């Protein structure tokens, strides 16, 4: 039997250890997510998950931690900030059509391994105190409703764009979890503070935020450039602009990010000059160079073919210049039918302007 006072002390210690490991916040949640489960079921029923079949594959396990990891009674939720104070630079990149825009989270090292290592160290530290205990750590690696759990752990509220927002940190952060059988005291859930603001909805380039708290993945640029393996729907291509991997517009427009405190995590600093690279330069990467430059990066998830597909669309949206046309022409006869089709669309777009 776990003593209540011991659990109270352990919860405080876990938060201190988490801070020592580099997490900006640690909270503890219960495992009841009935309302979130209903929202998820409705979203899936409407097909708004697109081709992300894995979202539906696990049934209600995503909203029932005790079914995913038997014995779970609490979830330790952690926050790791990645945002740097470059929001102005991000808008500048979006405004320069020949430059590539990469979502801020993907500019540096892939966060999955880094966070998993820190969560494992946190679990090891807990075990030193308690002895062996039941747990599993997750970072986007299983059917987990991480934002709902983080909200219940007091880390922030779910905004109208469906990202988690923290009053002092904004929304530029990653989430991770430790499911545990330790009956720790739970934190108070975060209250919502979006009010009547709808800036995120209004700024979305493709109108993917179809209602407050409802994102239709089939229109979302992050889905289209990362998750989708097929051709990007033609009617959405002009709306993508120069975004070649993900999209940050809803976060860039959120007032809570304007004055957010930022933490500089060296691992998340931009690599390969991705925060200022030109579309033509990135389009020239052959597969071996793509694999070399994206080692340890979330960008590798697109594969070289998806990378070229995305950049072809962005080049089609770029100003008509000799450099842009030459870059597209260089891939006109690419081995991939997917790449060839998107290049042909882009070239036709420039010819149409002429």
TrEMBL record:
<feature type="binding site">
    <location>
        <position position="254"/>
    </location>
    <ligand>
        <name>[4Fe-4S] cluster 1</name>
    </ligand>
</feature>
<dbReference type="InterPro" id="IPR004453">
    <property type="entry name" value="QueG"/>
</dbReference>
<dbReference type="GO" id="GO:0051539">
    <property type="term" value="F:4 iron, 4 sulfur cluster binding"/>
</dbReference>
<feature type="binding site">
    <location>
        <position position="222"/>
    </location>
    <ligand>
        <name>cob(II)alamin</name>
    </ligand>
</feature>
<feature type="domain" description="4Fe-4S ferredoxin-type">
    <location>
        <begin position="182"/>
        <end position="214"/>
    </location>
</feature>
<feature type="binding site">
    <location>
        <position position="197"/>
    </location>
    <ligand>
        <name>[4Fe-4S] cluster 1</name>
    </ligand>
</feature>
<dbReference type="GO" id="GO:0052693">
    <property type="term" value="F:epoxyqueuosine reductase activity"/>
</dbReference>
<feature type="binding site">
    <location>
        <position position="200"/>
    </location>
    <ligand>
        <name>[4Fe-4S] cluster 1</name>
    </ligand>
</feature>
<keyword id="KW-0170">Cobalt</keyword>
<keyword id="KW-0479">Metal-binding</keyword>
<feature type="binding site">
    <location>
        <begin position="247"/>
        <end position="248"/>
    </location>
    <ligand>
        <name>cob(II)alamin</name>
    </ligand>
</feature>
<feature type="binding site">
    <location>
        <position position="220"/>
    </location>
    <ligand>
        <name>[4Fe-4S] cluster 2</name>
    </ligand>
</feature>
<keyword id="KW-0846">Cobalamin</keyword>
<keyword id="KW-0671">Queuosine biosynthesis</keyword>
<dbReference type="InterPro" id="IPR017900">
    <property type="entry name" value="4Fe4S_Fe_S_CS"/>
</dbReference>
<keyword id="KW-0963">Cytoplasm</keyword>
<dbReference type="InterPro" id="IPR017896">
    <property type="entry name" value="4Fe4S_Fe-S-bd"/>
</dbReference>
<keyword id="KW-0411">Iron-sulfur</keyword>
<keyword id="KW-0004">4Fe-4S</keyword>
<comment type="similarity">
    <text>Belongs to the QueG family.</text>
</comment>
<feature type="binding site">
    <location>
        <position position="250"/>
    </location>
    <ligand>
        <name>[4Fe-4S] cluster 2</name>
    </ligand>
</feature>
<comment type="subunit">
    <text>Monomer.</text>
</comment>
<feature type="binding site">
    <location>
        <position position="247"/>
    </location>
    <ligand>
        <name>[4Fe-4S] cluster 2</name>
    </ligand>
</feature>
<dbReference type="GO" id="GO:0005737">
    <property type="term" value="C:cytoplasm"/>
</dbReference>
<dbReference type="InterPro" id="IPR013542">
    <property type="entry name" value="QueG_DUF1730"/>
</dbReference>
<feature type="active site" description="Proton donor">
    <location>
        <position position="140"/>
    </location>
</feature>
<dbReference type="Pfam" id="PF08331">
    <property type="entry name" value="QueG_DUF1730"/>
</dbReference>
<feature type="binding site">
    <location>
        <position position="62"/>
    </location>
    <ligand>
        <name>cob(II)alamin</name>
    </ligand>
</feature>
<feature type="binding site">
    <location>
        <position position="194"/>
    </location>
    <ligand>
        <name>[4Fe-4S] cluster 1</name>
    </ligand>
</feature>
<dbReference type="GO" id="GO:0046872">
    <property type="term" value="F:metal ion binding"/>
</dbReference>
<keyword id="KW-0408">Iron</keyword>
<comment type="pathway">
    <text>tRNA modification; tRNA-queuosine biosynthesis.</text>
</comment>
<keyword id="KW-0560">Oxidoreductase</keyword>
<feature type="binding site">
    <location>
        <position position="204"/>
    </location>
    <ligand>
        <name>[4Fe-4S] cluster 2</name>
    </ligand>
</feature>
<keyword id="KW-0819">tRNA processing</keyword>
<comment type="function">
    <text>Catalyzes the conversion of epoxyqueuosine (oQ) to queuosine (Q), which is a hypermodified base found in the wobble positions of tRNA(Asp), tRNA(Asn), tRNA(His) and tRNA(Tyr).</text>
</comment>
<dbReference type="GO" id="GO:0031419">
    <property type="term" value="F:cobalamin binding"/>
</dbReference>
<feature type="binding site">
    <location>
        <position position="140"/>
    </location>
    <ligand>
        <name>cob(II)alamin</name>
    </ligand>
</feature>
<feature type="binding site">
    <location>
        <position position="164"/>
    </location>
    <ligand>
        <name>cob(II)alamin</name>
    </ligand>
</feature>
<dbReference type="Pfam" id="PF13484">
    <property type="entry name" value="Fer4_16"/>
</dbReference>
<feature type="binding site">
    <location>
        <position position="175"/>
    </location>
    <ligand>
        <name>cob(II)alamin</name>
    </ligand>
</feature>
<dbReference type="GO" id="GO:0008616">
    <property type="term" value="P:tRNA queuosine(34) biosynthetic process"/>
</dbReference>
């Amino acid at each position: 039997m776990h003593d209540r006072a011991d659990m109270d002390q352990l919860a405080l210690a876990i938060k201190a250890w988490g801070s020592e490991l580099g997490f900006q916040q640690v909270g503890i949640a219960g495992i009841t997510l009935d309302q979130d489960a209903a929202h998820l079921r409705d979203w899936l029923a409407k097909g708004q998950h697109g081709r992300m079949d894995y979202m539906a594959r696990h049934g209600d396990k995503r909203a029932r931690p005790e079914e995913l990891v038997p014995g779970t009674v609490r979830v330790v939720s952690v926050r790791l900030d990645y945002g740097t104070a470059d929001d102005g630079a991000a808008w500048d990149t979006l405004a320069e059509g020949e430059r590539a825009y990469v979502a801020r989270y993907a500019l540096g090292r892939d966060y999955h391994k880094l966070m998993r290592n820190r969560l494992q160290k946190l679990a090891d530290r807990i075990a030193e105190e308690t002895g062996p205990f039941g747990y599993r750590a997750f970072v986007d690696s299983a059917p987990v409703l991480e934002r709902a759990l983080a909200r219940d752990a007091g880390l922030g509220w779910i905004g109208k764009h469906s990202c988690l927002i923290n009053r002092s940190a904004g929304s530029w952060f990653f989430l991770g979890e430790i499911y545990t059988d330790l009956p720790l005291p739970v934190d108070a859930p975060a209250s919502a503070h979006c009010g009547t603001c709808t800036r995120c909805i209004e700024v979305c380039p493709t109108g993917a935020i179809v209602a407050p708290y409802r994102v239709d993945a089939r229109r979302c640029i992050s889905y289209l450039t990362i998750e989708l393996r097929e051709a990007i729907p033609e009617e959405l291509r002009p709306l993508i602009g120069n975004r070649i991997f993900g999209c940050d517009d809803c976060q860039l427009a959120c007032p809570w990010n304007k004055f957010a405190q930022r933490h500089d995590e060296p691992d998340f600093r931009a690599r390969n000059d991705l925060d200022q690279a030109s579309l033509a330069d990135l389009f020239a990467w052959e597969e071996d160079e793509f694999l070399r430059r994206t080692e340890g990066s979330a960008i590798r998830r697109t594969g070289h073919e998806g990378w070229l597909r995305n950049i072809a669309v962005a080049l089609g949206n770029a100003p008509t210049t000799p450099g842009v046309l030459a870059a597209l022409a260089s891939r006109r006869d690419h081995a991939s039918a997917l790449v060839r089709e998107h290049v042909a669309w882009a070239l036709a777009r420039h010819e149409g302007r002429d």
